[in-house]
Amino acid sequence: MSTESPAILFVDDDADIQKAARLLAERHGMAMVSAAGPDEAWARLAERTFDVVMLDLNFSRGRTSGEEGFAMLRRLLAADRDAVVIVVTGHSGITVAVEAMRAGASDFVIKPWSNDKLAAALDRAVALRRATLAAGQGAPADDDRLILGEDAAIERLRAMIERVAPTDAAVLVTGPAGSGKSLVARAIHHASRRAGQTLTVLPAGSIEDEAGVTAAIAAARGGTLVIDDVEALAGRLQPVLASMLGEVRTIATSRLDRMSLRDAIDADLLFRLNTVELAIPSLARREGDALVLARHFLDRFAARHGRAARPLTDEAAGWIAAHPWRDDVRGLRQAMERAVLLGEGDAYGIADFTHGESDGGTATASGGDLNLERSERTLVEAALKRHAFNVSRAASELGLTRTALYRRMAKYGL
């Protein structure tokens, strides 16, 4: 058993309740981290692993149904099938607490709690978690398994992962480069009954002969085989792979849409890979998620690199939300890490996310370029740089509203 102090994450919007629980945990040799709601909780989960999650079931004033807590519980268990969760309820009472147990929670406490009973519940939960890990039946939650975002398409994607992961069905994951296909593949594996077995990644474009296919199948036997960029597999090897897929659980990824994929790979191979298809939308189509992910990555990389957490200015938040993010989530993630490493000041501004970017080869307005679109881009870019990417000041100089300027920044990738 680990000699480290047990780590507890308590998700509750009541600061007084948080303080009382933290003092109790510390008296019993446990370290407790607080989160006021699901968004903050996911940021804390990205920074480290926890032995136990204490989860309140209601976070919004006046809400008593427990729906918010149940949504968080489902996501926790999808990310880590062996997560140990103690639900905490006051308004909802014993009936909803029992329902949460049926949904996968390990225990429950009801406010106001008895300190002795809460301490005993925490001891049981820590022992359960560590016994499970010691037996090799699970692995700690990892932020690389978290499918973050609040857009309806992402909610549906998470729901599909929850449904299909426990089965042995073949899954095809499609989406633009950088959108998170490998992340979805890992999430499926780690939420499956094969989670304790090998996850083997086969880069389809790197396989040169039948021996390579055979070796990949052998390595994945009993576990999960992820076929990355399946359309890149040489045509002569596709029937070979198709004939061997019955030996493993397969997850294939592709940047192509369904129609293009039909033209690119053998029909029999596609049939064997495509029992369930999960399509990941581009970040540009995910309403509001760029900002959700940006804040998550900023917190994550600040913790990783030992930097102080800093807020976003309103201008920076608007710029992130409007930016096209041509490299999708991968590009956003890289920009946030760079900002943590190179950014200055008490808050992140737009300039912190444009380190090292070139001028894009645009001509100056005085250089005789009569192309209207290029000239507008040059003027917008020049005004932003002149005001250190202070959107309010740049918009005022250009005679635009901030909203209009954000639209042009998104249009020109500024």
Q: How would you concisely characterize the structure shown here?
A:
This protein has 414 residues and is an alpha/beta fold. The chain has helices at residues 15-27, 38-47, 67-79, 93-102, 115-134, 152-164, 181-190, 210-220, 238-244, 258-264, 267-273, 289-304, 314-322, 328-342, 372-386, 391-398, 402-412, and strands spanning 7-11, 31-35, 52-56, 85-89, 107-110, 171-174, 199-203, 224-228, 249-254, 276-279.
CATH topology of the largest domain: Rossmann fold
For the secondary structure, the number of strands is 10
Order of helices and strands: EHEHEHEHEHHEHEHEHEHHEHHHHHH
Kindly report the spatial arrangement of strands forming the biggest sheet. 2-1-3-4-5
What does this 3D model show about the protein?
The chain has 414 residues and is of the alpha/beta class. It has three domains: 7-134, Response regulator (Rossmann fold), CATH 3.40.50.2300; 147-281, P-loop containing nucleotide triphosphate hydrolases (Rossmann fold, 3-Layer(aba) Sandwich), CATH 3.40.50.300; 285-412, Helicase, Ruva Protein, domain 3, CATH 1.10.8.60. The protein has 17 helices and ten strands. Strands 2-1-3-4-5 form a five-stranded parallel sheet, sandwiched between helices. Strands 7-8-9-6-10 form a five-stranded parallel sheet, sandwiched between helices. Helix 1 (15-27) links the parallel strand 1 and strand 2. Helix 12 (289-304) crosses helix 13 (314-322) and helix 12 (289-304) crosses helix 14. The chain is flat, with a radius of gyration of 25 Å.
